[in-house]
C-alpha cells in the first residue's frame, strides 16, 4: 500500500486536474505553472496556506418549501487549488480502497456497482411476508447529518490503525483541520467560523474517507457476530453478511431474536460513540419476518425505531418481498421522461433520435431488466415512449411508421 501511495506527484497530473476543475483549457497557458507549483508545494512542504482552505457554504433546499435548518443541505465550495490537492490525494486513496474496504460497500470503490447492493437486498427480502418462516429482521438506518458529524480525531486514529503512512495521514489531516467556513445567505457572505469536525460535501476526498468510516462499522458487526447467542439472517451465514453500505445508506441484517438484536445494537452504539455519528430515529425503520408479536415489542424497545412496511425505498428504488409491481417502476419511467423532455425540445434528425434510443433509453431499460422482472405494462410503456420519440414531427404530429 505504501508503494502505491508514495509514487511521485508530477506537474502534468496537476495540470490535468486543474483543467477538470476549471473547465477551461485556455487558462493553462496563463496560470497553469503557478497553480501546479502551488499544488506540488503542498506535497513537498506539507503546509497548506490558510487562504487555500477557505470554504464557502451554500445551503441547498432538500424540500420544495423549507421551513427549518434541517430542510437544507450544506454544500461546500472549495478553493480551486485546494480541490486539485484533494483530487490528487483522492486518486491515491482510491487505488488502495478496494483492498481495504469490505465488498458490502458499493459506493466510490472501483469496479463496484450500486446495482449489486440492490440485487442482494432484494434477494434477502424474499419470503418476508410469508407465515411460518425463520425469524429474521432488517434495520434500515438513516444517519443524521452524516458527513457533518464525523469526528476528526477518529479519522486520524482510523487511518493510523489501517497502517497508512504517517506523511499521508498528515496530508489528509492538514486538509481537514485547516478549514475555515464562510456561510453564503441571501447571495452574500455572512461572516466566518472555523471548522471543528465533519467532512465537507464538495470536497473530492470526503466520500472516500466516509467509506473507510463505514467500513469500521462492518468490522464491529463482524466482531459482534462471533459472540455467543448471535444469529445471522437467512442466507447470510456462509457469507458472514451483516450489512450493506452505499456511502451513508446503511442496512443491517440479523436473526430476529433478542440476543442478535442486542449485540447488533451494541456494535452500532459503539460505532456512533467513536465516530460522532448518530441515527435519525424518525427516518430509520426495522422490518420483521417470522417474528412473534411479543418478541417484536421487546426488539422495538431496544432499537428505539419504528416498524416499517413494504415496499421500502432503498437507493431510490422500491423493494418488496414479492415481484415488482407497475407502481414500483416509477424510477425507470422518470429517468426516461427526463431525457425525452430535454431531447424533444432539440431539432434532432431521425438518425440522431434512433441513436439516442439505442444508446440511452434502451440501455436504461436493459439495466433494470438485469435486476428485476419488469411488468409487461411497463415494458410496453417504454416501447411506446421510444416509438413516439422516434417518429414525432413538429406540431405534435406523428409520422406513419415505415415498414422497414
TrEMBL record:
Entry-linked SUPFAM superfamilies: DNA/RNA polymerases
Domain Reverse transcriptase: 41-319
Organism listed in the record: Cannabis sativa (Hemp)
Domain of life: Eukaryota
Protein name (database record): Reverse transcriptase domain-containing protein
CDD domains linked to this entry: RT_nLTR_like
Record-linked PANTHER family: REVERSE TRANSCRIPTASE ZINC-BINDING DOMAIN-CONTAINING PROTEIN-RELATED-RELATED, RNA-DIRECTED DNA POLYMERASE
Amino acid at each position: 500500500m505504501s508503494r502505491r501511495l508514495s509514487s511521485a506527484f508530477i506537474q502534468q497530473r496537476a495540470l490535468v486536474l486543474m483543467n477538470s476543475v476549471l473547465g477551461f483549457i485556455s487558462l493553462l497557458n496563463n496560470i497553469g505553472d503557478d497553480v501546479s507549483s502551488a499544488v506540488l508545494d503542498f506535497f513537498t512542504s506539507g503546509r497548506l496556506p490558510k487562504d487555500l482552505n477557505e470554504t464557502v457554504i451554500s445551503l441547498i433546499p432538500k424540500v420544495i418549501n423549507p421551513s427549518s435548518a434541517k430542510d437544507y443541505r450544506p454544500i461546500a465550495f472549495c478553493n480551486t487549488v485546494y480541490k486539485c490537492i484533494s483530487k490528487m490525494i483522492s486518486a491515491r486513496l482510491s487505488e488502495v480502497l478496494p483492498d481495504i474496504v469490505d465488498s458490502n460497500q458499493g459506493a466510490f470503490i472501483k469496479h463496484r456497482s450500486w446495482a449489486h447492493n440492490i440485487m442482494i437486498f432484494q434477494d434477502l427480502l424474499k419470503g418476508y411476508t410469508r407465515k411460518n418462516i425463520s425469524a429474521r429482521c432488517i434495520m434500515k438506518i438513516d444517519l443524521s447529518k452524516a458527513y457533518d458529524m464525523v469526528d476528526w480525531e477518529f479519522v486520524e486514529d482510523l487511518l493510523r490503525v489501517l497502517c497508512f503512512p504517517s506523511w499521508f495521514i498528515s496530508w489528509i489531516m492538514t486538509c481537514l483541520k485547516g478549514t475555515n467556513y464562510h456561510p453564503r445567505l441571501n447571495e452574500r457572505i455572512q461572516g466566518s467560523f472555523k471548522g471543528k469536525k465533519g467532512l465537507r460535501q464538495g470536497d473530492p476526498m470526503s466520500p472516500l474517507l466516509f467509506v473507510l468510516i463505514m467500513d469500521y462499522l462492518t468490522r464491529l458487526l463482524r466482531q459482534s457476530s462471533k459472540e455467543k447467542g448471535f444469529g445471522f439472517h437467512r442466507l447470510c451465514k456462509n457469507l458472514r453478511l451483516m450489512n450493506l453500505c452505499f456511502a451513508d445508506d446503511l442496512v443491517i441484517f440479523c436473526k430476529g431474536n433478542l440476543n442478535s438484536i442486542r449485540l447488533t445494537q451494541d456494535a452500532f452504539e459503539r460505532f456512533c460513540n467513536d465516530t460522532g455519528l448518530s441515527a435519525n430515529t424518525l427516518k430509520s425503520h426495522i422490518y420483521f419476518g417470522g417474528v412473534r408479536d411479543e418478541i417484536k415489542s421487546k426488539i422495538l424497545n431496544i432499537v428505539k425505531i419504528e416498524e416499517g412496511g413494504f415496499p421500502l425505498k432503498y437507493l431510490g428504488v422500491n423493494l418488496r418481498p414479492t415481484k415488482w409491481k407497475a407502481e414500483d417502476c416509477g424510477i425507470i419511467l422518470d429517468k426516461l421522461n427526463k431525457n425525452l423532455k430535454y431531447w424533444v425540445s432539440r431539432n434532432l434528425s431521425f438518425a440522431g433520435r434512433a441513436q439516442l434510443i439505442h444508446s440511452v433509453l434502451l440501455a436504461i431499460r436493459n439495466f433494470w431488466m438485469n435486476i428485476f422482472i419488469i411488468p409487461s405494462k411497463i415494458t410496453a410503456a417504454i416501447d411506446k415512449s421510444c416509438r413516439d420519440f422516434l417518429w414525432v414531427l413538429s406540431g405534435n404530429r406523428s409520422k406513419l411508421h415505415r415498414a422497414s
